[in-house]
């Protein structure tokens, strides 16, 4: 065999193999890029990865951490397992702001208790709240529904892995409903707003949306409800009484140490 011809054939065969390897690598790279792109789209596009049958986005607690305003600019808040995009409220919810503790995890209980300082997993548990306090949570839920964009559900205490509400959530809603019935049947005045902070104790105050959460033409003054027994006390302890009636009913009295004309009162914790 001609040595030159043999060399030429070997060179041609080597080139063929080389082109084949390059082509195979290019195809493999194409599919890897396409697969990665699909993963990214699933991660950033609501309704693609982890969804209910109706197309609602489902979040794990780990996935939700990507929306804390640090890993990205997005700020996602959770209340009773429902997730809302509160990015437009960055001045309240952004890193370092007063209500940033609510971001990227479920701290539902804090909407009533005012535990804003540090997050813990127990803050999603509202079983220790009074029925009327659970009713307040529904008012907060209505506020976020009207004000911010709903983006999905958090898998955990309130919704299961399929996005179905849990027995726990149904029980919370039933208790809140029972409080609303009690308010409709027997309350003379709407309840005060309530918050708690370790450094000051409990604060009660009145606005034009206190109690039911619906707008009315007066705010009222916070008054201690005195005609209660142990069972009724869980229904109402502070009422917003209209100015013209604030001193008319002896069952509704100013809180100790609070000016009778004040619309906000601090009630120090009793030890």
UniProtKB/TrEMBL annotation:
Coiled coil: none annotated. This is Cytochrome b5 heme-binding domain-containing protein. GO terms for cellular component: endomembrane system; membrane. It comes from Anopheles dirus. The chain crosses the membrane at residues 16-35. It comes from the Eukaryota. Residues 59-155 form the Cytochrome b5 heme-binding domain. It holds the Pfam family Cyt-b5. Belongs to the cytochrome b5 family. MAPR subfamily. Keywords: Membrane, Transmembrane, Transmembrane helix.
């Amino acid at each position: 065999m001609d040595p030159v011809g043999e060399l030429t054939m070997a060179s041609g065969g080597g080139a063929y193999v080389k082109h084949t390897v390059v082509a195979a690598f290019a195809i493999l790279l194409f599919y890897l890029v396409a697969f990665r792109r699909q993963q990214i789209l699933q991660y950033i596009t609501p309704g693609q990865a982890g969804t209910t049958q109706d197309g609602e986005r489902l979040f794990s607690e780990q996935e939700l951490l990507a929306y804390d305003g640090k890993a990205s600019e997005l700020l996602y808040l959770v209340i009773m397992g429902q997730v809302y995009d509160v990015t437009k409220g960055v001045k309240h919810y952004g890193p370092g702001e007063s209500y940033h503790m609510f971001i990227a995890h479920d701290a539902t209980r804090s909407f009533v208790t005012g535990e804003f300082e540090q997050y813990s997993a127990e803050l999603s548990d509202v079983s220790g709240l009074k029925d009327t306090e659970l009713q307040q949570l529904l008012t907060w839920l209505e506020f976020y529904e009207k004000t911010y964009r709903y983006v999905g559900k958090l898998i955990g205490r309130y919704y299961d892995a399929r996005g179905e509400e849990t027995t726990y959530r149904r029980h919370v809603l039933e208790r809140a409903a029972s409080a609303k019935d009690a308010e409709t049947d027997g309350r003379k005045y709407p309840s005060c707003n309530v918050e708690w902070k370790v450094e000051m104790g409990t604060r009660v105050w009145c606005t034009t949306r206190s109690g039911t959460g619906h707008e009315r033409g007066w705010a009222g003054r916070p008054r201690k409800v005195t005609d209660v027994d142990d069972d009724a006390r869980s229904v109402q302890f502070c009422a917003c009484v209209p100015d013209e009636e604030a001193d008319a009913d002896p069952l509704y009295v100013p809180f100790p140490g609070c000016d009778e004309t004040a619309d906000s009162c601090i009630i120090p914790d009793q030890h």
